[in-house]
Amino acid sequence: MTSNVEYSQEMSSLSVCVADSTSTTQLVKEDIPLIPKPQNDICSRCCCWFWRRCCRERELRSRTIVIGQHSPEKFPANVIRNQKYNFITFLPLVLFQQFKFFLNLYFLVMATSQFIPDIRIGYLYTYWGPLSFVLTVTIFREAVDDFRRYQRDKEVNSQRYRRLVRGKDSELVPSSKLRVGDLVVVEKDQRVPADLVLLRTTERSGACFVRTDQLDGETDWKLRLAVPATQKLDSDSQLFDIKAALFVEKPQRDIHSFIGTFTRHDGYGSEDSLDVENTLWANCVVASGVALGVVVYTGSETRSVMNNSQPRSKVGLLDMEINQLTKVLFVAVLGLAIIMMCLKGFSGPWYRYMFRFVLLFSYIIPISSRAQHDKRVSQLRHRGGSESLLLAPFTVADSHFLTSVATPSWSATAVLLGIACRTVRNFIPGTQWFGKPIQVLGYGHIQHGEIGWFDLTPQPMN
User: Fold this and answer.
1) CA distance 2 to 5
2) Residue 234 or 9, more confident
3) Where does the P-type ATPase A domain lie (predicted)?
4) What's the CATH number for 178-306?
């Protein structure tokens, strides 16, 4: 009996110990901050809301489109935008692109140092004047180029297309006003404004040919076929009388594939599968007949826009060469400053005199070279008529040729700026330039590693 009581007391004490240890362990686990507590202040919530609304990429998903009706979902506007800047980002991005170059950064440091009285050697305008002039020229050039891109985008977005309307014949609307679900008529030799599913054509067979050279670079025509169920209708207005819907996949980059279905919900109850032959991608050109399609993707969700890269500032080979030469001249400036310090002696505040010598010899680096280069490039880029070709940089490796080209109506001479080349002496068989037949008149040898520019501006032939 006594042993049983002792056994029960031992078990009860053991259970109490286990309970205490368990409760202690749970208390320790609760104190560990595994998940940070959410902040309840208004500022953090506003920042999170702004990030979700403005900075998050839109989720791409499949969609169902009822023929003759606008989709209740919100889709991107059907606008094309190739600008590199906006009103807010223009000045910061332009300055960032300019001060990436060692030349501009060097003169910025030199001009800023003149605010320190101990190392000032002249008036502020002697350093800030040239730098401000160069930056002003560059900013003005970037503003003009971006404004021209804006004008080209506006011209494309304002192109008018015929849109079918219920109860009416049709109406002309600009390309930027098209929405998902609109029925759009595309005439022959007219650009397709958005990604469409082809419903009807003027051909009895429902066939239509398009040019896709703006998408894939191929010049041959592509065959497109209308949906059989809608091609059999007697007129375009009957599209509003049938009960039909399209189910299309989510937007993607591949221009050679497409998955979708066309379903009629009225008495016919037919269902047709859709592939890439039933589509008209944006920026294609209708080559034969008149096409009628329903808009399925607009704006940034079209195949052409999704395959485009973001606009960025490109650095030419001549710019890189000028930047490298600037670094070499800067090393020469440092060498001259060290020599002058050795002649003077490193006594007293020698570092101040060292920096002053660098400032005095800084004029060895010509800041005007950048402005002159930008001015010349801008002149060559925008000179000439509609037949002007591009200003193309090149780097010569081993032994290449400098060519001159000509057509029966105009000639374009290849000019190598600042570098002498040998006399043109041989003739080469004809070739093509951007799809136009041209004749190469001759070539000249250029030494290894030299850099130049082709000036391919049309000039009248004598």
Assistant:
1) 5
2) 234
3) 162-303
4) 2.70.150.10
Rounded CA gap, 46 and 25, in Å?
Answer: 38
Task: Give, for 405, the enclosing helix (H) or strand (E).
Answer: strand 401-406
pLDDT per residue over 125-145, tens digit each? Answer: 888 888 888 888 888 988 998
Residue 73's CB is within 10 A of a number of other CB atoms, namely: 11
Other C-beta atoms closer than 10 Å to the C-beta of 298 total: 25
Contact 278, 293 (CB under 8 A): no
More confident residue, 26 or 278: 278
Residue 155 DSSP label = H
Predicted confidence (pLDDT) per residue in 350-396, tens digit: 888 888 888 888 878 877 766 666 666 666 655 543 333 333 333 33
For residues 260 and 244, the answer to whether their CB atoms sit within 8 Å is no
Strands (E), 10-94: 63-66
* Residue showing tokens 């429902």: 206
Q: How far apart are CA 377 and CA 327, in angstroms?
A: 22
Per-residue tokens: 179: 């929405």
Instruction: Tell me the C-alpha distance between 364 and 354, whole Å.
Output: 16
Q: Cα dihedral sign for 51, 55, 60, 63? A: positive
Q: Please name the residue that has the structure tokens 């570098």.
A: 419
Q: Quick check: pTM over 0.85?
A: no
- The three-state secondary structure class of 440 is strand
Beta bridge pairs of residue 454? 392
Q: What is 63-126 written as a DSSP string?
A: EEEETTS--SS----S-----S--TTTHHHHHHHHHTTSHHHHHHHHHHHHTTSGGG--S-THH
Region(s) of the chain under CATH 2.70.150.10? 178-306
Q: Where are the alpha helices (DSSP H) in 114-158?
A: 125-157
Amino acid at 271: E
Question: What three-state secondary structure class fits 300?
Answer: helix
Alpha carbon separation from 25 to 13, 21, 31, 374 (Å, rounded): 18, 6, 10, 72
Whole-angstrom distance, CA of residue 127 vs CA of residue 121: 10
CA distance 30 to 64: 49
Question: What's the mean pLDDT in 172-201?
Answer: 92
- In the chain, the N- to C-terminal Cα span, in Å, equals 132
Cα(138)–Cα(133) distance, integer angstroms: 9
The torsion angle over the Cα atoms of residues 43, 44, 50 and 53, rounded to 10 degrees, is -140
Q: How many CB atoms lie within 10 A of CB 365?
A: 20
Distances (CA, A) of 160 to 46, 68, 82, 170, 199: 41, 20, 20, 12, 20
- Of 157, 198, 180, 214, nearest in space to 75 by CA: 180
